[in-house]
Inverse folding.
């Protein structure tokens, strides 16, 4: 029989395609399912901890920034406080009438205004002139007083007309600005006809209607008159509060300086409402819990990586006969190493996938309990399994190197 | 290195021996140093059915590993299928091993968790054979060894004889130039051993080159030619 020296066959396919390599590695990994589950555990825990920590961090800061918008970050309120005096009597103070002007002198104040509740002695508010007393409806609309600066301080938006100014205030003019709900109840929607309202028997011209305010929402329900008018007509004395809108970032400073400016002799007796320092809420979330969870997650990942390395090494030792056989049917050292690397990458990837799912579930679950809107960067769901795969890659390197070094003759020796 | 670059020792026209070993030695460095194979000259012609006999520890397996490129000699030259393999890189040797050599082991070495046809197809995994062709050829070869009805079986459910037949199918499917078997009947009862030897006889009749290591006379009697290893040294046996 004659033989050709070198036989050639038509061999279109690649030498060990990616698909074949993946197939072999998957078969190797899934051969022992319970071991696979145990091997992925560390990675699952680690990735889940990382994903939920980052997810909850993002969710929490989302809630903070939602509530903690620009308006509330620049709002400072000064109110009269009280304290127990040395003789047991309660010491109380009143805000001076020019409190807003005093605060306005401070650098960092954008706008300031005073606010007072007006005692109208039981008078009711009507929108219709007395000419038709039978048809007029009396409303229980609160009456308040404000300095002209208050509107600016609470970012008031005007639906129609304008707000009163310092001139109205000084002259004690009989004008009011209506909050939008008060205007609705009185049936007033426009001011170009110069409508009037009656408080008791007194007539006030409506100069404007408020559409919205960023703070002190009670203004929207009220009839608002100038401080000077309230003082002249109803004897309203000291303001109940000073509303201050500060420049961005100046709230803390103004919070410290305002009491001294308002009441130089007794600043301690004023109560001041300042927003929390910017970022402090966020930091609360990130520093304490996050650091612990990230550290735990990192530790779990390290343990997970070591777990994958150990089990893959164990499986290399167990499968020497398989390695020998693969070498006997033509596998190179690279083929053998490649298979074990891919196997541990698959384990890491699976761990990352399950861990990412668990982390997302934890984020959604905690958000539901806390009544938060879960916020999670979707890229996290892609990055997490890849991180798992990376860990598998690193963990599989040494076992794969050991597998490549297995001598076929040793591996195939009959036990 | 491509196939064309390989050193071709013989002309294509003359009949090229499958194996040509000259002065082959294999010394395990130890300590103690073991000279497992010493100064072996061995030529195996195409279609020959050779048995290698010898006492335990005489060096039979070592010689078979050298023949199958699983191990490198420490001395001598080895030309396989006209190619001098003594100087080849590990990668080239792996490739050649997969393409030219079929192994049958005493311990079968079938992979657990993979069915019979997958075990057979594994033989062509590291060659340029498409997945479909691998499985088609594996089924056909399993038919040849009488296992066509067990292609999807788990090897663990096979009898010893069936396992060895699956292993033979795996050794044959890539169409090797040389089939090497190390105590192929060592784990089998006499009737299963008989069946395996019948297959070998049939393969020999079809023109395949076989070298079978055994210490069993019944096995070596089937072969056309017998060599004996004594303390690593080879001698031809007349019959
Ligand atoms: N890797 C090795 N390192 C050291 N010595 C070895 C190694 N492999 C084989 N030997 C020694 O080489 C000699 C030949 O071993 P070999 O396995 O070839 O014997 P054998 O003829 O196949 O024996 P058996 O019939 O028992 O299988 C023995 O003395 C053995 O101990
Ligand atoms: Mg032996």
């Amino acid at each position: 029989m004659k033989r050709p020296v070198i036989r050639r066959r038509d061999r279109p396919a690649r030498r060990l395609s990616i698909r074949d390599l993946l197939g072999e590695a998957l078969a190797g990994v899934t051969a022992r399912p319970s071991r696979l589950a145990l091997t992925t555990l560390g990675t699952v825990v680690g990735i889940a901890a990382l994903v939920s920590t980052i997810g909850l961090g993002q969710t929490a800061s989302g809630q903070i920034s939602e509530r903690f918008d620009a308006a509330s970050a620049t709002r400072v309120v000064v109110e009269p406080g009280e304290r127990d005096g040395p003789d047991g009597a309660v010491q109380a103070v009143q805000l001076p009438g020019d409190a807003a002007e005093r605060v306005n002198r401070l650098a960092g104040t954008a706008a300031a205004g005073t606010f007072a509740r007006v005692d109208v002695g039981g008078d009711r508010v009507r929108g219709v002139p007395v000419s038709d007393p039978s048809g007029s409806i009396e409303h229980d609309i609160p009456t308040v007083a404000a300095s002209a600066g208050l509107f600016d301080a609470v970012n008031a938006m005007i639906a129609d007309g304008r707000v009163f100014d310092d001139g109205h205030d000084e002259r004690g003019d009989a004008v009011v600005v209506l909050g939008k709900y008060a205007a609705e109840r009185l049936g007033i929607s426009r001011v170009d006809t110069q409508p009037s309202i009656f408080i008791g028997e007194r007539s006030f011209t409506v100069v404007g209607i408020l559409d919205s305010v960023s703070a002190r929402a009670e203004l929207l329900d009220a009839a608002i008159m100038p401080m000077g008018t309230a003082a002249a007509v109803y004897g309203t004395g000291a303001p109940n509060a000073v509303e201050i809108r500060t420049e961005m970032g100046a709230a803390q400073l103004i919070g410290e300086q305002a009491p001294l400016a308002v009441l130089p002799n007794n600043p301690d007796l004023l109560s001041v409402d300042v927003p929390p320092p910017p970022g402090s809420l966020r930091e609360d979330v990130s520093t304490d819990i996050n650091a612990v969870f990230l550290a735990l997650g990192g530790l779990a990942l390290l343990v997970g990586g070591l777990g994958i390395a150990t089990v893959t090494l164990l499986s290399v030792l167990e499968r020497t006969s398989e390695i020998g056989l693969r070498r006997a049917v033509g596998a190179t050292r690279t083929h053998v190493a490649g298979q074990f690397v891919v196997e541990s990458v698959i384990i890491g990837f699976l761990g990352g996938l399950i861990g990412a799912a668990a982390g997302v579930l934890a984020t959604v679950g905690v958000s539901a309990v806390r009544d938060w809107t879960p916020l999670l960067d979707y890229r996290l769901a892609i990055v997490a399994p890849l991180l798992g795969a990376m860990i598998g890659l690193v963990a599989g390197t040494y076992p794969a190197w050991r597998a490549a070094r297995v001598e076929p003759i040793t591996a195939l020796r009959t036990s | 290195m491509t196939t064309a670059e390989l050193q071709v020792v013989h002309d294509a026209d003359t009949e090229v021996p499958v194996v040509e070993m000259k002065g082959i030695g294999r010394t395990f460095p130890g300590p103690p140093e073991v000279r497992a194979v010493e100064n072996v000259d061995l030529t195996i012609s195409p279609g020959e059915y050779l048995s290698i006999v010898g006492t335990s520890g005489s060096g039979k397996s070592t010689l078979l590993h050298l023949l199958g490129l699983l191990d490198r000699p420490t001395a001598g030259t080895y030309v396989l299928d006209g190619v001098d393999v003594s100087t080849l890189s590990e990668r080239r040797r792996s490739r050649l091993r997969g393409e030219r050599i079929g192994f049958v082991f005493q311990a079968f070495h079938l992979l657990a968790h993979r069915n019979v046809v997958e075990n057979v197809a594994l033989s062509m995994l590291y060659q340029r054979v498409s997945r479909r062709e691998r499985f088609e050829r594996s089924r056909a070869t399993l038919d040849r060894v009488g296992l066509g009805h067990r292609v999807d079986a788990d090897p663990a459910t096979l009898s010893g004889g069936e396992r060895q037949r699956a292993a033979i199918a795996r050794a044959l499917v890539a169409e090797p130039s040389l089939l090497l078997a190390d105590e192929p009947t060592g784990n089998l009862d006499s009737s299963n051993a008989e069946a395996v030897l019948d297959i070998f006889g049939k393969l020999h009749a079809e023109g395949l080159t076989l070298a079978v290591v055994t210490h069993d006379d019944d096995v070596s009697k089937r072969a056309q030619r017998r060599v004996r290893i004594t303390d690593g040294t080879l001698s031809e046996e007349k019959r």
Observations:
- Confidence is low (pLDDT under 50) at residues 1-13 of chain A.
- Residues 280-318 of chain A form the longest helix (39 residues).
- DSSP finds 14 helices and 14 strands in chain A.
